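// run 5 | inverse folding | seed 20
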């Protein structure tokens, strides 16, 4: 129990260190100040790493002690104590896993993570959890009326048969975005991505009246994770094909169709398609348009070749700048 309390206190100390470092000093104005700041930053990084390692070591020792106590209880056939110790050990292992994940994220070696994936019908603004490397937004309307561009990010869009902007994608480093429209029905959605590595963003569009599909093709020479965002103005259903083991994070579900999915891909050639359908009666084919974004994240620098159009990547996208440090396993 004392080790558990110690781990909690150390974690609290870590929070204090993190919070104290959140507001950096003003940019240095002289070579001496630059060097001083480098030394300061290096010392903070080293101290934070030591603190994480101390937390993980305490967690590991706590798990080991509980395992030893559980083994002794089982040998003594003390069933009640064994059950209680087993519950404690599982809780301690969960804490160890959490703290290891925190260290991985802080050292830049955490796994790809999709953050806050959502779609909101009838909304024109969206706030996503802060702290991701990049944010992807999408929106679609029922068409036939005016719609304005996303306020932030690199944006691509499609128009319906009447010439109105009816669906768009945006890539940005900001966790908030919004648009405005005179339409009656609309949806906004998106997600953040953390620890995604390098990024290539592609899109496919279909502005023909009665549009029912859009596609993106690409070839990978290394493993990657793809995030797929499908949009369909004047339609209510979206499905994807061309990717094995695609996980649907946000299904199309509402008056205007938007869907988000992701998959881990091996090297190879791919063509991803979104297939769209108008389900509500009275839908006018001239209002239908399809837009799909494919966002390719890779841990290292891989070659991505494609005939599809590209979406510009924000200049301040937090791509990795070197190899990740070795994973700390304790001991």
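// decoded
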């Amino acid at each position: 129990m004392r080790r558990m309390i110690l781990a909690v206190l150390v974690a609290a100390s870590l929070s204090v260190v993190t919070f104290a470092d959140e507001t950096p000093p003003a940019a240095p104005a002289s070579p001496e100040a630059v060097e001083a700041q480098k030394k300061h930053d290096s010392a903070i990084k080293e101290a934070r790493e030591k603190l994480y390692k101390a937390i993980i070591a305490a967690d590991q020792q706590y798990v080991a002690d509980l395992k030893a106590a559980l083994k002794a209880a089982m040998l003594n056939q003390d069933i009640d104590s064994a059950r209680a110790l087993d519950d404690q050990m599982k809780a301690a292992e969960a804490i160890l896993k959490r703290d290891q994940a925190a260290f991985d994220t802080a050292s830049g070696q955490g796994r790809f993570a999709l953050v806050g994936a959502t779609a909101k019908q009838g909304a024109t603004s969206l706030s996503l959890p802060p702290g991701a490397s990049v944010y992807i937004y999408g929106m679609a309307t029922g068409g036939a009326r005016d719609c304005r561009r996303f306020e932030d990010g690199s944006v691509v869009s499609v128009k319906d048969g009447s010439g109105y902007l009816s669906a768009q994608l945006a890539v940005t480093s900001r966790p908030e975005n919004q648009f405005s429209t005179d339409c009656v029905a609309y949806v906004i959605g998106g997600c953040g991505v953390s620890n995604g590595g390098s990024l290539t963003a592609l899109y496919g569009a279909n502005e023909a009246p009665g549009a029912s599909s859009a596609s993106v093709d690409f070839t990978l020479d290394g493993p990657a994770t793809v995030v797929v965002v499908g949009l369909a103005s004047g339609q209510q259903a979206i499905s994807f094909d061309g990717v094995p083991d695609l996980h649907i994070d946000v299904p199309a579900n509402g008056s205007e169709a938007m869907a988000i999915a992701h998959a881990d891909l091996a090297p190879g050639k791919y063509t991803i398609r979104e297939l769209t359908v108008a389900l509500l009666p009275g839908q006018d084919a001239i209002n239908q348009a399809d837009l799909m974004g494919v966002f390719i994240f890779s841990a290292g620098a891989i070659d991505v070749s494609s005939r599809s159009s590209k979406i510009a990547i924000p200049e301040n996208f937090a791509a990795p700048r070197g190899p990740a440090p070795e994973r700390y396993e304790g001991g």
